[in-house]
Amino acid sequence: MKEIVACPDLVAFCGIFCGACPRFLKGRCPGCQGNDKAAWCKVRSCCIENEYTSCAVCAHFDDPRDCKKFHNVFSRSIGFFLRSDRRACVVQIKKVGIDAHAKAMADLGRPSIRP
Q1: Whole-angstrom Cα distance, residue 90 to residue 34?
Q2: End-to-end CA distance of the chain
Q3: Dihedral over Cα of 105, 61, 32, 97: its sign
Q4: Which of 28, 43, 54, 105 would be 23's cystine partner, CB 3.0–4.6 Å?
Q5: Is 2 within 8 Å of 24 (Cβ atoms)?
Q6: What does pTM read for this prediction?
């Protein structure tokens, strides 16, 4: 199993910290940034298209809740069942930057801030 490291490259476009995800740590997922199979993810596609490092730098929406790609029934359901708050992650990135977010999540040992 991989060790959790505070690497900003392991922050997904939606703010989740892949570096603490069990699938990533077990080598079963390359993480969002390197996952070409994740073409289905509208958030990832939007950020790549707009050359954003994450939703935190989106020029179209101040709050991710206003974005239909980020905040929809599917994502809210997943967030509920996995007890993760991607919006809180994006807000944290806006406040402290992606490096500090990666460090905070690595220190917590979790992929997401919990609601």
Answers
A1: 20
A2: 27
A3: negative
A4: 28
A5: yes
A6: 0.90
Residue among 73, 88, 55, 34 at smallest CA distance from 111: 88
Q: Cα separation of 18 and 32, whole Å?
A: 7
Vertex 9: Cα angle to 38 and 21 (nearest 5):
65
Please tell me the distance from the alpha carbon of residue 85 to that of residue 104, in angstroms, as a whole number.
15
Instruction: Give start and end residues of each alpha helix (H) in 1-58.
Output: 22-25, 42-50
Token readout for 38 is 């994740």
